[in-house]
Specification:
By secondary structure, the chain is of the alpha/beta class. It has eight helices and nine strands.
């Protein structure tokens, strides 16, 4: 399988120069061909410049430089569209830039895809998964967010908010990426919901998540509010769809 790893960045200068070489080692050691796409939102710390230098070292690194901070969801949407339109890939990975996701898991997620699944979610909340170095408050927020996501979308995935996952390219082609409206972290939930709507097979693979050691988290109140808004939009859409089906059934009777 030819893989493409997508990494959104904003002020990840220290982390990205460690992450990309780690990814390259994993790809090389497992005889995997592919590309690394970094979508940088004009990071003030020079992340974009670091990626440009790494692109000269590794011939498979591509930088998509955007003019402003436009959100992680829109970054994934931009990268996915670029891949579908102009790159040769079988599998597309999402991965955070902050070293919380280990590149060593890449072959394991590919193996799950080879078993017939369309999407593999690197899960912190499935058996043998876990989180290192998170305070109680952060754990609580994450668990509540995932509970709400499962409840309001009806998607039976333990770690709906995971940013480490693998998609078959044909799976991405089967969903309407432009219909995924979230520009923030709710993109992860909305994308999984669209995959379920399309009848795709989703599986979780346990990962050990490690808190970032460099840089700051991008989680703020604006992100949380958008997350909740998207969840209730999906819930409303599901309810309207269920009501429509009931009315159609009543008419047929």
């Amino acid at each position: 399988m030819r893989v493409c790893v997508v990494i959104p960045t904003y002020n990840e200068c220290e982390n990205i120069q460690r992450l990309i070489p780690e990814i390259e080692i994993v790809l090389s050691n497992h005889c995997l061909e592919g590309d690394v796409i970094v979508v940088d939102d004009n990071s003030p710390d020079g992340t974009g410049e670091v990626v440009e230098k790494l692109a000269k070292v590794y011939g498979n690194v591509m930088a998509i430089n955007r003019p402003a901070k436009l959100g992680i969801g829109s970054a994934y949407r931009k990268a996915f569209q670029t891949i579908l339109e102009s790159l040769d890939a079988d599998v597309v990975f999402e991965m955070d830039a902050d070293l919380s996701h280990k590149p060593a898991y890449i072959p394991s997620l590919i193996k799950k895809l080879s078993e017939g699944f369309d999407v593999v979610v690197g899960s912190r909340y499935t058996q043998r998964g876990g989180i290192k170095s998170w305070p109680v408050t952060r754990r609580t927020i994450s668990m509540v967010a995932n509970f709400l996501a499962r409840t309001l979308t009806g998607v039976k995935v333990s770690d709906m908010t995971s940013g480490f996952r693998a998609y078959r390219v044909r799976a991405l082609r089967s969903i309407d990426l432009n219909g995924v409206k979230s520009d923030g972290y709710a993109f992860q939930v909305e994308a999984l919901y669209r995959c379920v709507e399309a009848g795709l097979k989703i599986v979780e693979y346990p990962i050990m998540f490690k808190e970032r050691s460099e840089g700051k988290s991008k989680l703020g109140w604006e992100v949380v509010l958008e997350f909740v808004k998207i969840l209730f939009t999906i819930a409303f859409s599901r309810g309207r769809g269920a009501l429509k089906r009931m009315l159609m059934l009543h008419e047929n009777i």
